[in-house]
Design a protein that fits this description.
Layout (H helix, E strand, L loop, with lengths): L4 E9 L8 H23 L4 H14 L19 E7 L5 E7 L5 H11 L4 E3 H10 L7 H4 L2 H10 L20 E6 L5 E7 L20 E3 L5 E6 L1 H7 L1 H12 L3 H15 L4 E6 L5 E2 L6 E8 L4 E6 L1
Parallel strand pairs: 3-4
Antiparallel strand pairs: 1-5, 1-11, 2-3, 2-6, 5-6, 7-8, 8-9, 9-10, 11-12
Bound molecules: aspartic acid.
């Protein structure tokens, strides 16, 4: 029988045990649980992997805890510019948006690009025009306001530096969200959404919306969603590299993902992690940082919600 499964992440980084309050830890775990269960229910009811990953990512976007949607970090201009991508592995259909503002669920806009336009990737003003044509209502800046993130930005706003999402150590934690799933038909899909980096400017785009970099799905190999310092992940073409190792070298999902996260991307000093599934429902969740918010559930009854190594 076909195994179906889902894995989600809420970012990787210097998540050191004991440094987070028990209360906050419980809040993160609860948010991960809600998102995982909603996605898993879609699969259990015979729904598609693309619906499952969109469902989970939307819930993570709606939580202020993660750097995506509602919880997106501040740019150098004090705004929120979000990136998202979605892909399905049967026909290699994909959609992505970058530098969008005021959109509550960028992952759904990415899906609309995939299904309702001839294009794959829309950015900035053009993506916003497309959203308006699709009748998206825009949230005002109050919706995205978060005191913690505002303070992070105030701390570096007058400098040239930009920073990954808040952490105990500066530059230590990434709060991008993502989901990968394998459904009862053995079709796989991946979705990723992010607010990018605090104080980013010049239209900076990270790995998350780039097909084959922060997000990729192909039934022949794997579905992958990444989190980490986008610049390194772009240079490492991470998600597609995992797929290539499986397709051309015959590596298993787990070995391919490990090779990329714990060797190849480390060689260029890239920090972060990824989640992956294959069309048999196998899962993997490697990261080379101290922690990664993650949760998984399979039809074989395996499940967990984890933060640390
Ligand atoms: N990969 C994201 C970016 O560089 C950041 C993250 O994973 O939190 O935009």
């Amino acid at each position: 029988m076909q195994t179906f499964s889902i894995v989600i992440h809420g970012g990787a980084g210097t998540l050191v045990k004991g440094l987070m309050t028990k209360k906050l830890e419980a809040e993160y775990k609860e948010a991960l649980k809600v998102a995982r269960e909603a996605g898993f229910d879609v699969l259990k009811n015979g729904g598609s992997s693309i619906d499952a990953v969109e469902t989970s990512v939307k819930l993570l976007e709606n939580s202020p805890l993660f750097n995506a949607g509602k919880g997106s970090v501040f740019t150098a201009e004090g705004t929120h510019e979000m990136d998202a991508a979605i892909m399905e592995g049967k026909h290699l259909e994909a959609g992505a948006v970058s530098l969008v503002t005021g959109i509550k669920n960028p992952v759904s806009l990415a899906r609309d690009v995939m299904e309702k336009s001839y294009h794959v990737f829309l950015a900035g003003e053009g993506a916003m025009k497309f959203a308006k044509e699709q009748n998206y209502t825009l949230e005002n800046s109050d919706y995205f306001y978060d005191e913690v993130r505002y303070k992070q930005w105030q701390g570096i706003k007058d400098s040239d530096s930009f920073q990954l999402d808040h952490s105990v150590k500066k530059d230590g934690k990434f709060g991008t969200v993502g989901a990968v799933a394998c459904d009862q038909n053995g079709n796989i899909a991946a979705a990723t959404s992010t607010g990018g980096m605090t104080n980013k400017k010049w239209g900076r785009v990270g790995d998350s919306p780039m097909i084959g970099v922060g997000n990729y799905a192909n039934n022949k190999t794997c579905a992958v969603s990444c989190t980490g310092s986008g610049e390194f992940f772009i240079r490492g073409v991470v998600a597609y590299d995992v797929s290539c190792l499986m397709e051309y070298k015959g590596l298993s999902l787990e070995d391919a993902a490990n090779e990329v996260i714990n060797k190849r991307i480390l060689e260029i000093k890239g920090d972060g992690g990824l989640i992956g599934v294959d069309a048999k429902g196998h899962i993997t969740m490697p990261f080379n940082t101290e922690g990664m918010y993650r949760a998984y559930k399979t039809s074989e009854g395996k499940e967990d919600i984890l933060i640390y190594k």
